[in-house]
Amino acid sequence: MNDFSLLPVLAGTAAFFAVGALWYGLIFAKPWQRAAGLSNSQLRAGNMKVIFALAFAFEMLTAMVLWHLLARTDPPGFVVMMMALGFAVGVMIPAVGINYLFQRKPLALFLIDAGHLLVGMAMMGGVFVWFRS
């Protein structure tokens, strides 16, 4: 297994990105918008091409780091899932939580965003298990 392989990294990134599209587009669009305190006009004012491109780039960076760790350790599939979920539960979600505490963000926003990170990382882990089998 190479330290870097573009196809699984892109597929893992795409899986995470797809979760975000469903999460914030279909499943939690209105609750997220309310919790984030964003009006329809504020949402329309953003440059969506830049926002989506940067979101994809950040998710790809996460995928690259996880893939690199998998390449270095060559764990079995269940450990891949533990590592992916461990990233979410042990690093990503606490980092968001710390920021939200100081920014006085509502619990509802934290739970929606934390859920996205958890499910997104689970999907990325699943894609990586599939690529490694």
TrEMBL record:
<feature type="transmembrane region" description="Helical">
    <location>
        <begin position="6"/>
        <end position="29"/>
    </location>
</feature>
<dbReference type="InterPro" id="IPR013879">
    <property type="entry name" value="DUF1761"/>
</dbReference>
<feature type="transmembrane region" description="Helical">
    <location>
        <begin position="50"/>
        <end position="71"/>
    </location>
</feature>
<dbReference type="Pfam" id="PF08570">
    <property type="entry name" value="DUF1761"/>
</dbReference>
<keyword id="KW-1133">Transmembrane helix</keyword>
<keyword id="KW-0812">Transmembrane</keyword>
<keyword id="KW-0472">Membrane</keyword>
<feature type="transmembrane region" description="Helical">
    <location>
        <begin position="77"/>
        <end position="102"/>
    </location>
</feature>
<feature type="transmembrane region" description="Helical">
    <location>
        <begin position="109"/>
        <end position="131"/>
    </location>
</feature>
<protein>
    <recommendedName>
        <fullName>DUF1761 domain-containing protein</fullName>
    </recommendedName>
</protein>
